[in-house]
Amino acid sequence: MSFLFTQTILTRRSLLGGIAAGSALVMLHPFTARAQANQAHLRIMETTDIHVNIMPYDYYADKPNDTLGLTRTATLIDRVRAEASNSMLIDNGDLLQGNPMGDYMAYEKGMKAGDLHPVVKAMNALGYDCGTLGNHEFNYGLEFMFNTLNGAQFPIVCANLTKGQLASDPKKDELFFKPYVIIEKQIKDGSGNLSPIKVGFIGFVPPQIMVWDAKNLEGKAQTRDIVQAAKAWVPVMKEAGADVIIALSHSGIDGAGQSERMENASLYLAGVEGIDAIFTGHQHLVFPGPKDFEGVPGADIKKGTLQGKPAVMAGFWGSHMGLIDFLLERDGNTWKVVDFTTEARPIYHRDENRKVIADVTDKPEIVAAVKAEHEATLAYVRRPVGKTLAPLYSYFALVADDPSVQIVSNAQTWYVKNLLKDSQFKDYPVLSAAAPFKAGGRGGPEYFTDVPAGDIAIKNVADLYLYPNTVQAVLITGEQVKNWLEMSAGMFSQIPAGTKDAPLLNPKFPSYNYDIIDGVTYQIDLSQPQRYDGDGKLVNPNAHRIADLKFEGKPIDLKQKFVVATNNYRAGGGGKFPEIAADKVILVAPDTNRDVIVRYIIEQGSINPSADANWTFKALPGTSAVFESGPKGRQYAAAVKGAKIEDAGDSPEGFAKFRLIL
């Protein structure tokens, strides 16, 4: 079985590169400059985790943003093509969901067979050679995904997504997509002659899509372990004549040790014999680079290698262009890699005052291609749905009960109580678990919710709840509620009593896993070590950060049953919270959490989302901690309920520093 495509170097893509080369001084890559008659320079370029960010525009804030946008990356693509005598362009997944344009296309406009999605329209114009799937491709269902991807003028590959159950051998799996493709291409060598080369691309998606999108995939699809699939298919690619084999891995880099069906398997994928290079994604980080993967065994953050093989992760939302450059040498009728370099090249930088400076401008052809969808998305997100009597902001969502999380919990509780009122679960108390999604971190100092009092539009609701999750509810015990909160408390560092200005937040703990549970009251004791690690494993059995946990003013009954409103990701086991899994689910609702919030606001007309301070930190006299938030949070610091917060200056990355008095 062989999946072979043929193309010539004299395409529109090389023509565009020539135009770029002619319009500015181009610094050729050393491999192009020094290649001999039997050598050639091949550059592979990556985008990853675009998440529908075509325009450099933040639809949630309703303003331009110079840190993102495929229209900017497109200009960079032209530049880097001009630096190399031979190049190819790939995408590593997570195209179709992630901002309001994605929701507009899925929920308002829809995608019929034959329609062209703006992301695909842009990618076709840029001349992509190959792509793979990300986990978010499945968020709107299989029909939407196929109607969209069928418009791509380039192959999509995925070797570990099957129709129905797994076969006894990966090579016998009935796959939705071709597992790999071999593109036969004419490349120019150091003497200017054209010669054929066969470049193989194989793709992988995280197996966890079966949990995260069970509603769309259960009974229709299955996933196989990434490394297992690679070991089966890479030898087939070799037999089919691939000179160079490139893995498109929508899977991150995790050095904690290989495990079956692991989510972030790229480090171990690099160990599969026959793979020459790895393009990674999914984690929204940058590799190679100075900090994101420091200390990961087998990852060289300077050279850009995983287990000695070239690898790159190109950020997210178009923030970077991933580059792997090969110096190839002719060996008889085949080519082999004799040298390589890797790079994650950004579209912007920050000056000495941490102000964002764009390094590239928009590519006009891409702006024009998506103009209609951009304008339709603006109209969509500006549509008012109600009013809020108090501001909604997330600047302090990780350190105190917060209005942006409160409104989500209020809406979820309202919705689930209404759905269960005539069911067998009608007499169980309903709690609600919600997490802050926009809380700075990798998103930068402006990545916070900030909605003033007054009209609420759809853009504001999307800002409160970034993902198209659907509502689910679980039935669990009081003890499991407590352990849920213990897992969430991994957000914080351990701070011994009496410590001054200790770092408060655990940088490796994502904010979307910091669930606040409404309907109970509790305190978090930071002097205690965390009870669970990031994988939900019990690491300190005698540790209890959650203190004074009460329901209706009384200590919680650990055996009492509670319904907890949440989302499909968490209810299905996402985040690896102890004992929270699909077997606890008692309600699978048809509506997204965002739609529920919109309905709640419409139903109420006006809302007052002030936080009720149902959780606080346990007092530790003489102790303080510091954390970072957005500079605009300073106007709200004094009004935060249940916490004493002081201004502590600025950070080099543009964040404001705050001191929490414990």
Automatic annotation (TrEMBL):
5'-Nucleotidase C-terminal domain: residues covered: 418-578
PROSITE patterns per UniProt: 5_NUCLEOTIDASE_2, TAT
Keywords attached to this entry: Hydrolase, Metal-binding, Multifunctional enzyme, Nucleotide-binding, Signal
CDD domains, alphabetized: MPP_CpdB_N
Signal sequence range: 1-35
Family membership: Belongs to the 5'-nucleotidase family.
UniProt name for this protein: Bifunctional 2',3'-cyclic-nucleotide 2'-phosphodiesterase/3'-nucleotidase
Organism: Rhizobium lemnae
